[in-house]
Amino acid sequence: MNEKKSLANATTTWHGLLILAGIGMITVSIYMTNHYFDSMFPTGLTGASTLCDINSFFNCNKATLSGASNIAGIPISLFGIFVGIFTLLGYMFQSEKAESANYFMLAVNAIGCLVLFVYSLVGLGGLCPMCTVYYIASWIAFFVYFKNVDFSGPSVKMISIYALVVILASGGTWTYVNGKNQYKERVAESMVAQYDGLQNLGKPSMDSMYKLASATEKFEDAPIQIVIFSDFQCPACKMLSSLIHQIIEKYEGKVNIQYFFYPLDHNCNPEMKNPLHPLACQAAYLSYCLPEKFGKVHDDIFNNQDSLSLEWLHNYAKDEKVLDCMKNATTKEKVVDMIKAAGPFGVQSTPTMLLNGVKVEGVIPFINLAPILDALVERHGKK
Predict the structure, then answer these.
(1) Using CA atoms, how far apart are residues 54 and 358, in angstroms rounded to an integer?
(2) Residue spans per domain, the chain
(3) Measured distance CA(330)–CA(315) in Å, rounded
């Protein structure tokens, strides 16, 4: 008669694989849970971690911002934490009931991971890197049980204990999320009220040909109209450039964004008496000469802000065959004209925005700005 297979009789290699898989599931699940809350309820200007936002295909936000990321506001990654914990506890306190319960749990978990993997590839067109690590760890853990344990049915008692722990944790998380949502609603109402209390200053007398988004031919026809006064060497302006990408993504087809050069550089800005950003004017000249490629130039300069140099700007201009334009005196005159357009709005620092005519200084976290933008879209639809 063959001896019943059990983890107790498995080799050290199998034990090691199971321990690593359990630790891996817990670690990436904690990261994904934090990422979910940072994305849904950000508290700072930088928002959620970008550690696993590798490119457009391997990107955590593909999963985090999808409908499959949560159940009633509870991130599904929370369940991954418990799967990892139960896997390690079952290993530490080995018994026939624990083995049968974990076998069943890991089988269900492996199937769920396969469904989510296919959904991510087909439905979302990409993969969350941390989710993928979790899938692999889950499949390894199940494979260890499949190869080393004879399954005779789940232990109802152990599965019930697991379910009770998860239900209690989920209830606490739901209460926390509900409180966060209520606070979020109060902040949203406050932000809209503050915006409505500010004076509408209109828009510059001249339109800029430097566009970051163009939903309509006439600038003032879009529900959201943003005028940006910015400096390519300003760190906060770099933050705003990231925020603008979020705005464009969420409000595609509803937003017009035009850019005005406002270098904090005395070489071209008549309002600056002392040097502050010595390459800001040169960066503006380069951008001025490439209006058709402005979006790319804008991103390239900000992405290289920390290492920006005159050589980098000149090499970029040479590659684009606009070095003569960049050095032309007329280019400086045109940039100065755009700087002067900021005068009526009392621009004293960068970045400064005109949001449908209302002056906004600095960078507002997207979570706080979004309610204002939503209100502008809603009001436009009622006109």
Answers:
(1) 35
(2) 7-180, 211-382
(3) 21
Strands (E), 181-280: 211-214, 224-230, 255-261
Q: What is the pLDDT along the chain (383 residues), one digit of tens a residue?
A: 456 788 888 899 999 999 999 999 999 999 999 988 887 876 543 455 566 767 778 888 778 878 889 998 899 999 999 999 999 999 998 888 899 999 999 999 999 999 999 999 998 888 899 999 999 999 999 999 999 998 888 889 999 999 999 999 999 999 999 998 898 888 889 989 999 999 999 999 989 999 999 999 999 999 999 999 999 999 999 999 989 998 998 999 999 999 999 999 999 999 888 878 999 999 999 999 999 999 999 999 999 998 999 999 999 999 999 999 999 999 999 999 999 999 999 998 899 999 999 999 988 888 889 999 999 999 998 76
**Phi, psi dihedral angles at 202 (to 5 degrees):** 80, -155
Q: Compute the distance between CA of residue 268 and CA of residue 290 in angstroms, rounded to an integer.
A: 18
Cα–Cα distance measured from residue 300 to residue 285, given in angstroms and rounded to the nearest whole number? 14
pTM for the whole thing?
0.64
Tokens of 249: 């993504």
Provide DSSP, 153-170: ---HHHHHHHHHHHHHHH
Q: What is the CATH number of domain 7-180?
A: 1.20.1440
Q: What is the CATH number of domain 211-382?
A: 3.40.30.10
Residues 6 or more apart in contact with residue 276 via CB below 8 angstroms: 264, 265, 266
Peptide bond into 351 cis (omega under 30): yes
Spatial separation of the C-alpha atoms in residues 187 and 206, rounded to whole Å: 35
Identify which of 232, 212, 236 has the alpha carbon closest to the alpha carbon of residue 222. 212
Q: What is the DSSP string of 195-206?
A: HHTSPB----SS
What whole-number distance in Å separates Cα of residue 229 and Cα of residue 183? 32
Please check whether residue 364 is in contact with residue 246, taking contact to mean a CB–CB distance below 8 angstroms.
no
